Amino acid sequence: MGRDDAVELAFRAVQRARFLPEDQRDRADQDAPLPIGHGQTNSQPFTVGAMLRLLDVPPGARVLDLGSGSGWTTALLAHLVGPDGRVIGVERQEALIEPSRQALLADDTAGVAEIRLARPGVLGAPEDGPYNRILVSAEARQLPDDLVEQLADGGVMVIPVGPTMRRVERRGDELRDTEHGAFRFVPLVED
């Protein structure tokens, strides 16, 4: 089965509505970003699909989901990595943590995925790296060295830098950095 098929299967398996606030659930089928409170959004499904395809997550991968928000992308990634993988979602908005954890539990991803509150002054979760894949769902001003350092050899990071979606692949000390169109995201808090 191709990776595109795996992304489609993950979208079918993970109900977006479960990861939305009650007042947004009737809009879950819209291909639009939806507010989840605290200035954050649940990203547009088209955008999430594009990012997951660029990330090309293999089964069994160790993945960092930075800016996990509602937990929806964390759950999608958990379906992609399967039971032998691991997904760590990191979110800065403390009020979003418990609702996203509850939605994740209802999605039956216990043991594969978790969501943590970001630590002040720390970008990502370096203590659990390196990661085979890093998904960043917030716009960075520039490519963050702290995240590149958490990427395993052969690993891939998908991150919006400015308005441009970038795919960064690490091969030893070399980076292959390609651009993949313009997208809009909330700003990445990098300090």
Task: Write a brief caption for the model.
With 191 residues, the protein is α/β, with parallel strands linked by helices.
Could you walk me through the main structural features you see in this protein, from its secondary elements to its overall organization?
With 191 residues, this protein is an alpha/beta fold. The chain has a single domain (3-16, 43-182), classed as 3-Layer(aba) Sandwich (Rossmann fold), CATH 3.40.50.150. Helices cover 26% and strands 30% of the residues. It has five helices and nine strands; from the N terminus they run αββαβαβαββαβββ. It has helices spanning 3-13, 45-55, 72-81, 94-106, 145-149, and strands at residues 34-37, 40-42, 62-66, 86-91, 113-117, 131-136, 151-161, 164-171, 174-182. A seven-stranded mixed sheet has the order 5-4-3-6-7-8-9. It starts with a helix and ends in a 9-residue tail after the last strand.
For this entry, give a set of tags.
191 residues; alpha/beta; Rossmann fold; 26% helix
